[in-house]
Amino acid sequence: MLALLTLGLLFGLFPQSASASATSYTSVPVLMYHYIRVNPDPRDRTGFALSVTPAQFHAQMGYLARNHFNVIPLSKAIAAIRTHRPLPPRSVVLTFDDGYADFYTTAVPEMRRYGFTATDYVVPNLVGRGSFMTWSQVVAADRLGFTIGAHTMNHVALARVSRSRARAEMLQSKQALEQMLGHRVVEFAYPYGSFNGYLAGQARAMGFESAASTMPGAGHQPGELWWLHRQRVSGWTTLAAFARLVGGPWPGAPAAPATPAPPVVTMPKQPAPRPTPIPLYHSKWKSPAGQGPASPLRK
Length: 299
Description:
Blueprint: H1 2-13, E1 26-27, E2 30-33, E3 35-36, H2 45-50, E4 51-52, H3 54-66, E5 70-71, H4 74-83, E6 91-98, H5 101-113, E7 119-122, H6 135-143, E8 147-150, H7 163-181, E9 187-189, H8 197-205, E10 210-212, E11 219-220, E12 231-232, H9 239-246
Parallel strand pairs: 2-6, 2-12, 3-4, 5-6, 6-7, 7-8, 9-10
Antiparallel strand pairs: 1-11
Helix pairs in contact: 1-8, 3-5
């Protein structure tokens, strides 16, 4: 019943135009990553789920390249969804949540080998702490052509706090990133996928062109841009499962004609992040007893 009421609120807030068909979907997988690392604590099953190893990520990017996927910027997908314009065949979007340092040190070099791009949703008050990117890394990723989106100031479950707190978390994260990057920030993601119709309306009013949720699916309508569906890639995702997520051929199928291996990309050295402990936890997302310590950010 609650889900029906929420959907009713969302559709009431963003009614479809009379000319738009109720079945006019744009199909493009928007993938959601978190860490690109080997999970440091085997007992932490939630941490494992949030962690795609560098070897897995290498295999996934290689799969996309071999099978001629078009890895496009999120902004291009949003424009196509809004106007129902066709996208290149086998289009896919890559997104990363939270702004972890391994995005810059591991994921970015791998993606640049193939000319791929991505969006990383960054939490300003966590920048430079623990396992998160430094500001110099955030700015460097932006200058390399990767998109930086907002993810609140403190990684807050927005639907669980007051409206005034939620608005401040959203707007201030946008403003902080814009000040550091020197240009508009128009992409947002809800921490923990926590949102409602009111927050979707606020995201739109603040000038965000999209607000990503954790709701699964690859079909998108213009009125749903402020609760954008994404496909989760986790530590459990085999290459065969990854192929299903993006709608590609079985990984064991004959490969396309061989092409020269792309060059290895070396990233500029950045100052090491300060080893500051992260005090941020949300009781709902702590690891179950006996499964190791909770990661600071749980989805």
